[in-house]
Amino acid sequence: MRTILTLVRKDFANFRRNKAAFVLTFVVPIALIYIFGQVFGLNRKDTGPSGITLAVVNASDNPAAQKLVDALTAEPAFRVVTKKVNADKSERPLTETDVRAMIHNREFRFAVVIPADVIPDAGLGLHLKILSDPRNEIETQTVNGLLQKTIFSNVPELLGQSLQARAKKYIGADNLDRFNGALATAVSGAFGGDVNKIKERFARGDLIVKPDDPALAKPADPALHKLDSTTSAGSAQPTAPAAPAASPARKNAAADFFSQIVKIENEQVVGKDVKSPEATRVIGGQAMMFLLFALSNGAAAFFDEKNTGIFQRLLSAPVSRAQLLWSRFIWGVLLGLVQLTTLFIAGHFLFGVDVFHHIVGLVVMCTAAAATCTAFGMFIAAFSPNAQAASGLATFLVLTMSATGGAWFPISLMPAFMQTIGKFTLVYWSMEGFAQVLWAGDSLLEILPTVALLLAIAGGVMAISIWRLNRRNIFG
Amino acid sequence: MLQLRSVTKRYGSLVALDGVSLDIARGEFFGLLGPNGAGKSTLMSLVAGLRAPDAGTLTLDGAPLTARDSSARISLGLVPQSIALYEDLSAEQNLKIFGELYGLRGADLRARIDEALEAVKLADRRRDQVKTFSGGMQRRLNLVAALLHRPKLLLCDEPTVGVDPQSRNAIFDFLEARARAGLTVIYSTHYMEEATRLCTRIGIIDHGKILALGALDELLTRLPFEEEITFANTPATAAFTAQLGALGDAAGVNGTQRFRPRAGFKLSEFYALAERHGVPPRAFTQSRPTLEAVFLHLTGRNLRDA
Q1: Dihedral over Cα of A355, A357, A358, A362: its sign
Q2: How many CA atoms lie within 13 A of A126 on its CB side?
Q3: Greater pLDDT, A158 or B168
Q4: Containing structural domain, residue B122
Q5: B165 versus A476: which is more confidently predicted?
Q6: CATH topology for A52-157?
Q7: Could you tell me which residues of chain B have a Cβ less than 8 Å from any Cβ in chain A?
């Protein structure tokens, strides 16, 4: 037993000395658990997505349309944009043409267009348009769900107006006025309240009377509430706590009903022609993660060359430190380029990702991403005391950057501060670049800013790494 | 050929080299003898341009040796203390890489690789991965990798650490042959036997300072004795031993009596005294003092214990 205890003590002593093992055992899992927790809303007050930019074009002068805009603005998941800032800093309301261009320019991915004829003269119902760049499937589904919820919550009033307009057309204004008056009288007779006020509400399309409606003199019949909760299908806002819930069958029926009369036209603005959208969406993030792992191994190899004295031999030859470091950088970029290209080509043959139509842009993006990742590997080598520490630090950074940078799930599902952190990762910008090439089909000129940004990151990180490596005794 | 003038190198508060001045002549086999941490590897790394001195200058054939300017290093070859080879590559691939770094190409490079592999008896293993080699074979390859470009000055930083005696002798033979052909060698070691066998001139270094410099015989003259006589300490020799203190330095170590006669003392008088005490001449072992004794004399410590 004493022998076993001695051996266990030996393992403990070794573990305590091994910082890499410590990081991999405790820090990495805690960091990832925290990130996953934030994504799934554990211990968060602001659960759910946040900060998703949503452009809203309101071409209608209908007050109910403005109420829909207000409802979208109140939705915490969205950061609603309704105005375009001109070159002279003046502002004007967004138009559909504006938002199409802005979605193409990646200023946002989702827009709701409320057309001038949101309540068409011909036919019953109303129509809205959702424009999107569904580059991230999870995010797109989330946004669609939230939009439907918000829109359907505000449908009844718009629908009431539509009914009123149609009725006016078919039976005439006088007959409609009489009809509204009769209906208001009936409601007032059953529930109390001022006939004229109720009639005015009906006239402007507000047909929903809730049990606690102040227009009524006494509480509404529960049956009326049932009707109300049914017509609010899709709404997350319960109408009254005491009211019995509508059955699923009735809810489905209501949803079907609304889907018949509320025409939401979904239009994919970007990525329409992508052949294998599911694979195209994820391949960039996955490729980046594996590239980072591969190049992080390069950081450990750096120490192998130091420890075996190969650096001594190389530097005693007519080889400068700068040549040595830049040769490693070039090798890393080449390796990364080949690895990324191979992964994308594999994606083409395995999942049908359209690689060859974008091959030039893809190679340029792969080169920029590989350069940034290589610089990252050099950075780890420069700031790690040994190979083990480099390996531990690399694992920690690769996993956290992949998680916060959006390689695993959309960053809009994270809290705002983590979204900000995510945008400082090379994973985020590399994924942006790959999506531009493969998803949006951007030209070389269009991807240039992203490429330039990645190369600037690579240059900056390399400069810091070289400065650090030259100060350290890593070559001795 | 190589000149060091007041070279100082510090690592934080540790002074690794303290104002070292040294001249190495062309064709010289210079030994740098000192214990671990004496400053040998630091001196080697400064000459090889791996580090820059904090003070002082280094020149090779009049041209300054600096860490920044790599052009002068074409004349140097470094055999690092560790096996500085790519172990997943073959012997031939390793030599090709290191040869190309010195500007060798094509047929010339191939011829030199053939010659080098023949010289260290690795020609039949040229395509094998280095990791499959024995320690001695790796050491030999490590050595010739530094000679492929035919440097004027070879820096050997303890190149036989962990090598079996047979391989060590092969390395010595190889180096001696090269030295005879005119190669200048600086050889750092903490094995006095290696310095004694190989070096035409030896610098004894400790705590970053060159304590003594010269050929083996010159260093030995620094000792206050020329011979060392040892014999077993027995009751029969006790009376004889008691009288030795007046004639030189006598000390008993582990049952063995060591006597170092003072300068000018005639050995015939020692043997006459022994005869008078009935101690036969065959009881004595007479030897020349070693570098170990020089080091002990200079530092007060044994080389191996330092």
Answers
A1: positive
A2: 29
A3: B168
A4: 2-220
A5: B165
A6: abc type-2 transporter like fold (3.40.1710)
A7: 45, 48-51, 68, 70-71, 73-74, 76-78, 80-87, 98, 101-103, 145-146, 155
